[in-house]
Design goal:
- The structure is a single chain.
- The chain has helices spanning 19-24, 57-66, 68-88, 135-166, 202-214, 223-232, 236-258, and strands at 7-8, 27-31, 39-43, 46-51, 97-100, 103-111, 116-119, 124-128, 172-176, 183-185, 190-194.
- The two termini are 24 Å apart.
- It has two domains: 3-87, no CATH class; 89-258, Metalloproteases ("zincins"), catalytic domain (Zincin-like), CATH 3.30.2010.
- It has a four-stranded mixed sheet with strand order 1-2-4-3. Strands 5-6-8-7 form a four-stranded mixed sheet, with helices on one face.
- 44% of the residues lie in helices and 20% in strands.
Length: 260
């Protein structure tokens, strides 16, 4: 979608909207001419309402009022996860740290060294040549690349045994920061995994990989699909529940990392 198709709605742009309530709820409005329905989303403790063409001010006001308690709960949850993310991930050059496989580790910066990331037992060592520009932005770039490589290496170690057990293979493995999904499988059999999985215990990333591999056999979430998942990852129910509880936290971490 082109950026020009998405517009922030300023107060007064649409007569009849209850801007007083929207301000109390700290609700941000966006209009999208391609949207077909009203949709609420939450990011960095900011609730956004996507407005689609054809909806009256009265229907928008009613929609917001109907979801008011949900909006408040989401904001409270997001603020709590933002605080948790701020404590776990810091790009402050005086005391940088990053969560890897569920543990927040201090970062040791090696000035003048080639860009690199090495995971140790009690710290992360990062080569950083500050002469090449803004050191904090450089740290963010190195972290994104290094964390993606850590996740890729872990998944590539898990793949052979899982694929042998399944009797099928994925065509490619991609790591990227996803907004709403932990992973996906393309029509051509390529698996995409959320970069944010590297922040959580490694077993959760293993589950997501098994989940997506199971889709090679079952392109749905039927009982047959979950039997395939169980054959690859018996504790899938525990992992699935944990992932649901960690989504806001991981997105807050990705926002902090991508903002660098």
């Amino acid at each position: 979608m082109r950026a020009s198709a998405l517009m922030v709605v300023e107060p007064g742009d649409m007569a009849g909207l209850d801007h007083a309530q929207f301000e109390r709820l700290q609700l941000r409005l966006r209009s999208n001419p391609r949207a077909r329905r009203l949709r609420l989303s939450v990011r960095q403790a900011q609730v956004e309402l996507m407005i689609a063409p054809g909806f009256s001010a009265a229907s928008i006001n009613a929609f917001v009022d109907q979801h008011r308690h949900w909006i408040i709960r989401q904001q409270q949850t997001q603020k709590g996860e933002l605080g948790r993310a701020e404590a776990a991930l810091s790009l402050d050059l005086d005391a940088p740290r990053v969560p890897i496989w569920g543990v927040s580790l201090p970062i040791r910066l090696i000035a003048g060294a080639p860009p690199s990331l090495q995971l140790g037992a009690d710290a992360v060592e990062i080569g950083l040549d500050a002469r090449r520009g803004n050191a904090q932005k450089a740290l963010g770039r190195i972290l994104r690349a290094g964390l993606g490589q850590l996740l890729r290496e872990r998944m590539q170690k898990q793949l052979p045994a899982l694929q042998q057990r399944l009797g099928d293979r994925c065509s490619a493995l991609r790591i990227r920061p996803l907004r709403s999904l932990w992973g996906s499988l393309s029509a051509r059999g390529a698996i995409s995994l959320n970069l944010g999985l590297v922040f959580l215990p490694a077993a959760l990333a293993d589950y997501v990989l098994a989940h997506e591999l199971a889709h090679l056999r079952q392109h749905n979430h039927s009982p047959a699909f979950w039997r395939e998942v169980a054959s690859l990852y018996p504790q899938w129910q525990i992992a699935r529940a944990r992932l649901r509880s960690e989504h806001a936290y991981v997105q807050a971490l990705l926002d902090r990392l991508n903002g660098a």
